[in-house]
Design a protein that fits this description.
It contains 10 helices and 14 strands. It is α/β, with parallel strands linked by helices and 271 residues long. It has an 8-stranded mixed sheet with strand order 5-4-3-2-1-12-13-14, with helices on both faces. The chain has a 6-stranded mixed sheet with strand order 8-7-6-9-11-10, with helices on both faces.
Length: 271
């Protein structure tokens, strides 16, 4: 039976110190030794996602990485991207002009984050990922391809105001998708692109039936990842929305939940 495993990193596969436990590394190596593709599937930027995947020896098995919330897919077999969905210059300009001095915005490339002002959380994650962090005041200061962006209200919006913002963004950027995570955070990506669609595309590329895919996640950007997999597994520390969608719930990331699930449900059944 051909199978494939897709797992989020932060809050799922990684411990809270942003490191992989020994049992996680050992289990994922055993999974790959059995010929089962293990795909790092993360919102982290591609340069860091590739680095994290190497810690799990994914490159030794000519494996794959899904980064930037599915906007970029990297193959270690060819050391190149299978796909990378990017915004046009005009889309970047429109989003900048609509949001500047009104909202916080993070423009993400494979290697860096562009912001209007330094933010504690976004700067922290840039340091964690060891990627660049640039403050801009004009769209032409963005010098890399942008794969996705986050629009963040300074305070939570009312339901009606959030819905209105979504409508405005969709009208402004008709060839892009707008996903509302909550009443503060809205993600913009290429049409039809998410961790879930990336799972479907790569599963087809691998020749693995969707019903034989397993996914692990914990947060808003994992909703489609959990929904689209044959078996979606929420770690016990996941948000309620993820738990409600998942077919199964593992122990938390602190308790090596995904690794123990794979050991008990996959490895024990492999000949």
């Amino acid at each position: 039976m051909k199978r494939a495993i897709f797992a989020d990193l932060d809050g799922t596969l990684l411990q809270d110190n942003h490191k992989f436990s020994k049992i996680t590394k050992k289990t994922i190596k055993q999974i790959q030794d059995k010929g089962i593709p293990f795909v790092v599937t993360t919102g982290r930027l591609a340069s860091d996602a590739i680095r994290q995947a190497k810690k799990l020896k994914v490159h030794k098995y000519n494996g794959y990485v899904l980064a930037n919330n599915g906007s970029a897919a990297y193959s270690f077999a060819t050391n190149s991207f299978l796909w990378m969905m990017i915004f046009t210059d005009e889309e970047i300009k429109k989003l900048f002009e609509f949001t500047y001095n009104k909202y916080k915005v993070h423009f993400f490339s494979n290697n860096g984050t562009y912001v209007y002002e330094k933010g504690e959380n976004s700067f922290y994650w840039a340091k964690v990922m060891k990627t660049s962090y640039k403050i801009i005041n004009a769209p032409d200061q963005i010098t890399e391809d942008i794969t996705h962006a986050s629009v963040i209200a300074h305070e939570p919006l009312s339901d009606s105001a959030a819905a209105h913002l979504v409508d405005e963004l969709k009208a402004l950027l008709p060839l892009l998708d707008v996903t509302q995570y909550n009443n503060r955070v809205f993600e913009i990506s290429a049409k039809g692109i998410s961790k879930g669609s990336a799972l479907k595309f790569l599963s087809h590329h691998l020749g693995v039936p969707i019903e034989n895919t397993f996914s692990f996640g914990d947060s808003y950007n994992d909703i489609e990842l959990i929904k689209q997999a044959g078996t979606g597994v929420a770690v016990n520390n996941a948000i309620d929305e993820i738990k409600a969608l998942a077919q199964e719930i593992s122990l938390s990331n602190k308790e090596n939940g995904p690794a123990l699930y794979l050991r008990d449900k996959i490895l024990k059944n492999e000949i």
